[in-house]
Design a protein that fits this description.
Layout (H helix, E strand, L loop, with lengths): L5 H5 L4 H18 L12 E3 L11 H7 L3 E3 L8 E7 L13 H18 L3 E7 L6 E6 L2 H17 L7 H11 L6 E6 L8 H10 L3 E8 L1 H5 L6 E4 L6 E4 L1 H26 L2 E6 L4 H11 L13
Parallel strand pairs: 3-4, 3-6, 6-7, 7-10
Antiparallel strand pairs: 1-2, 4-5, 8-9
Helix pairs in contact: 2-3, 2-4, 2-10, 4-5, 4-10, 6-7, 7-9
Length: 306
Amino acid sequence: MEFLDPKALARLETLHLKAQVIVEGAITGLHRARLEGSSVEFAQHKEYAPGDEIRHIDWKVYGKQDRYVVKQFEQESELTAYLVLDASRSMAYRGQGVSKLEYASYLVAALAYLLIRQQDKVGLYVFGDRDLDRYIPPRSRPTHLHDILAVLEETWRRGAKGSEPLGPALDRVAEIARRRRSLVVVASDLFDHGGRALDVLANLRARRHDVAVFQTLDRDELDLPFDGTTLFRSLESERELLAQPAAIRKTYQHKLREFLTGTRDGCVSSGVRYDLVPTDRPVEEGLLSFLTRGERAADDSAPWNS
């Protein structure tokens, strides 16, 4: 199976089918990847069973042998995951492909599909639009996936319309998840006008939660490819800027690099896993990176050039 372009993925009829295709593509990628590391010591592993945490699955073993095993010395109780989706207005941007919100919804749907298939508990929190403040508590029953996908599909079909910052949303997740160690996955452009997002992510990690971030940006935001006099309008305020892109491109890309580097470094220093996922990148690749990365927080390469 070849990885699907996000525009091709968008043409599939249902979100459930999209999630299934993404997961199957990522698993196929595991088989094809060149997985480095020491040879498998079977005495250190056990067959995966319901209640084992998915983050303890040895994906290298799965990629080589097509079977699930967990590291026995790391075995804990079942995983509880909180999937956090940004539905603020800046996520509505759409360049030549799908919107940031739609792309992020695909990622979250695929993770929900994978985790629930592994019989782990999955919750969903959609923030950004206070009129569509949606929280689904973590559950693992098969019908729970339908509930999550229904909210995700409703969210991206309605569109990103709010302006709630990321910091308070993560505060709520931290309050909900305070009683037990959990996996928290955030899909957002991280345009946080409150300025607290990295601090709250670091606080979640300090509480021993496993935290991962998919920073979702459109290729237009990364490259500023426009020509001629262009009117730029903020999606989350009334600000406008009339400019010649060629005249501001160098400064813009310098500021963007500072922002992305600061975000990535802030995540890495806190032990938060970080991926920059442009919306023209196959969604399966982002999921594959998440599954194979393990405890690595970020690539050493400059992600905005990917």
